[in-house]
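Reviewer 2 asked us to include a model.

Predict the structure of this chain.
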Amino acid sequence: MRAVLIEEFGGTPRLATVDDPTPAPHGVVVAVEATGVCRSDWHAWQGHDDDVTLPHVPGHELAGRIVAVGADVRNWAVGDRVTTPFVTACGRCPECAAGQQQVCRAQTQPGFTGWGSFAELVALDHADVNLVALPGGFSAATAAALGCRVATAFRAVSDVARVRPSEFVAVHGAGGVGLSAIAIAAAAGARVVAVDPSPAARDLALAFGAEHVVADSSADSVVQTVRDLTDGGAHVSIDAVGLPVTCENSVRSLRRRGRHVQIGLLPAAAGKPSVPMDLVIAGELQVLGSHGMAAHDYPRLLALVGSGRFPLAELVTRELPLEAGPRALAEVGAATTAGITVLRP
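Predicted model (structure tokens):
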């Protein structure tokens, strides 16, 4: 099969011909129809993830059709159109038994612990636990966005932050996950302020339901502007980027008893954020993490998309061939594009 191959962290990936994957007894192989280009893939390429070993094929947001099924799989067959969370859970550990597969202690992740979906084929583990059937009418490009950014934003807004109507929500970063969080919070009746340095991203934020947008100029001005626009501070503030400054800005943007949700990864190479714990204590702030979403929760997300209140298709702003994968990865790091880019193997 053809795949985007990383042979050196930070070096130029190349399109290569590699061996086809085979399914584990509990797994499947999926022919990739579309795969999202996510900032997490950029982190894998840069060597920020200890799970990644070289050579490596990135990619973890995908949709496609099953072409091979392991002997122990019971619920899926060749020809089924599916997507999957980026966490492929084991289904047996205590977290999985409690229904919290997104924090499975024995999880694998395509594109991180194993080769991913920047390829014509990808192997997925524990299919009966992790696969999600795609409803008719879902394009592959649209469905590919569900696996990481949209699902992560949905659970972060709905289940972790528990956003309520009329609450002020600040979203720091209007990339794929940030735009998803903006649209989901707006669909819940929240009043959203989006922060991003890119004019194109700010325009998309307004289109996805933000009431106000803020240019990312300096940390102090961002915090003060958000606090002014939210009548003294946001009820919920989300870091959808994963930089020390965006994490700190998010916490400082909160009103008393507000909830900060960290979605964006914070790689060690970027430095450690100075979380203002004095404000956390004095204001009784909640500092929360959010890590994807279990497959069994997808029906709620699919219902939201089907209702028309969340414009999922409009998130995908570019579709590129597989050979454009190296360029698309570089553009993620430079933040030169808005919306979600998908590759079409």
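Residues 220 and 249 are 8 Å apart (CA to CA). The radius of gyration is 19 Å. We have added this to the supplementary material.
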